[in-house]
Design a protein that fits this description.
2 copies of one chain form a homodimer. With 168 residues, chain A is mostly helical. Chain A has helices at residues 5-16, 23-42, 44-48, 53-65, 71-78, 82-94, 116-136, 142-164, and strands at residues 98-102, 110-114. Helices cover 68% and strands 6% of the residues of chain A. Chains A and B meet through α1, α2, α4, α7 and α8 of A and α1, α2, α4, α7 and α8 of B. The structure holds a DNA duplex (30 and 30 nucleotides).
DNA sequence: AGCAGGTATTACACCGGTAAACGATTTGAC
DNA sequence: GTCAAATCGTTTACCGGTGTAATACCTGCT
């Protein structure tokens, strides 16, 4: 069992400040570090298609709900600000991947849907992306992956309850 | 067992595209989501001290290594670009939390150390931060936390080997 | 001296968030 | 019924933070 960066950081803290309860770092530090490493590399298949992770998330949200979404819904779905969604929509629209359509009843709201190219792009990219992710996770055996997924789900439920409630 | 956001996203994908192997999402999606939620809220104690997470990481790196570090070392230690470190150092120096000292031998390199206030600030903030993080993790029992930490460590080792090697 | 390699900083551009602005709709008082 | 005010969804304006790439500077070797 070799140790990771977080383990050595924790060891440094213990040396310098022996009383410290560094327990939380072992989880939160690792989650942050994993997320950082993943985001740096994970997007390789996306980048080759000229897409940001955030843009892909947006396209994916429209694709998987299989209906038109409003910018507001997209903002909630992708956990980003309305302004960010607006900008991404403009960029994606300029590339003819999404279309805007004004609501007939309420002219404040817009409806966003994928163009055929947008849909085709997502359907081509997502399997590539998942295959890449699968290769990244290949170092863990199946029981380990299940265990990890289930623990993360537990944690995520906690976080959503505690923090997601305070959101918005 | 209630399910989290990732579970419902996976379900949506399965509805729309039944053949898809969504396994990787169960881990990577959750890690990203946890990291996002944590970073939004986790920094509460820091923000009250007027510090960014990145700035705190930088101060922490100097504190825990217990010696002067060069900007380059700090960039590697905090996994950010040299330019970002330069700017953060300027900001922290303006607030008298760190000091720069030029090397006598090699006048390219600088050495960064904490001022007394900087050191005091870290030593005051870190326990607060850890206490806050502990409260966030309180929903998991101790065996669950250990299990999670250990699985994350496994994954992190894999990622560092696979991706960290490609870094620089 | 000149050149190759290394360190830190600066210049520039992108991306995201907050807050203000804008247009549209609903509510409520008269 | 109508007007004014509050509310809502979206967009725009602005700002801060980060990365890449160009720059300045230094060292050590030939």
């Amino acid at each position: 069992m070799t140790d990771d960066i977080v383990a050595s950081v924790v060891r440094q803290w213990q040396t310098v400040n022996p009383g410290l309860d560094t327990g939380p770092m072992e989880i939160i530090g690792r989650i942050n570090r994993c997320a950082a490493l993943l985001q740096q590399a994970e997007d390789a298949p996306l980048r080759s298609a000229g897409l940001t992770r955030a843009e892909f998330d947006l396209l994916g949200a429209v694709r998987r709900t299989d209906r038109e979404l409003t910018p507001g819904e997209l903002a909630r779905e992708t956990f980003s600000s309305g302004a960010a969604v607006t900008k991404r929509l403009r960029a994606l629209q300029d590339r003819a991947l999404v279309e805007r359509r004004g609501d007939d009843r309420d002219r404040r709201v817009a409806h966003v849907r994928l163009t055929d190219e947008g849909r085709a792009l997502v359907d081509r990219l997502l399997p590539e992306q998942l295959a890449y992710e699968r290769s990244v996770l290949a170092g863990l055996d199946q029981p380990g992956r299940d265990e990890l997924a289930s623990r993360l789900s537990e944690l995520l439920v906690q976080l959503e309850g505690r923090l997601g409630g305070a959101r918005r």
